[in-house]
Automatic annotation (TrEMBL):
<protein>
    <recommendedName>
        <fullName>Deoxyribose-phosphate aldolase</fullName>
    </recommendedName>
</protein>
<dbReference type="InterPro" id="IPR045444">
    <property type="entry name" value="DUF6503"/>
</dbReference>
<feature type="signal peptide">
    <location>
        <begin position="1"/>
        <end position="19"/>
    </location>
</feature>
<dbReference type="Pfam" id="PF20113">
    <property type="entry name" value="DUF6503"/>
</dbReference>
<keyword id="KW-0732">Signal</keyword>
Amino acid sequence: MRYLLFCSLFLFFSLGCSPDKTNSLASDSQAQEVVDKAIRAHGGKNYEHLNLAFDFRDRHYTATRNNGLFTYTRAFTDSTGRVKDFLNNDGFKREVNGQPVNLPEERKQAFTNSVNSVIYFALLPFGLNDPAVQKAYLGEVTLRGQPYHKVKITFAPEGGGVDHEDEFIYYIHQKTFVVDYFAYSYQTEGGGLRFRQAYNPQVIGGIRFQQYINFEPPNKQVPLTDLDKLFEAGQLKELSRIELENIQVNN
């Protein structure tokens, strides 16, 4: 914001700030404002001091956050016994039947990604202000008769994780600032595109949690920015439901 003001002053005195740069800064500023309002609409400060537990696909997750410090866990039973994963600011570790397990770095990274991904989506849009997030405002769009801001999210390579090439588009309601839809492209396992529609919202402990219908387009060549058009035209195929169960929040 300070740079945008600085650039505007230079324009006033005819010292030059290129139109492309000015438009980009305005887009980023508008996207930031919309995202900030969305985070407030979904939970705001309640995200900062959080003690969350829920079940997802036969696995039990917990997430605690306190001023930037976090601990996420995942617990389940498989052929090896009772497994519990821990992810915090210091990294990842796994226990089986209460005993620590040594894992190769590749598996640690894979488990880190899977635990973090579930928590990340459960707490959306909270993570959209992480330092590696880059925002751009794509304009306005109407979905199912409702007006939305269309915001693109990308990630800087440094701090953006192994999936930093993934791209997201969030559809944030212009009046309520709720994220009712989002779309994304991913590169792992051959890559693909997804579009999610929120349903059955629940406000628990001051935080809005949503379930999602997960859709895919007829082919991978569709531009990410066009998935909303295919959704409106009924040309997306439902793949799955993203449903959190037994949600508990203690702030």
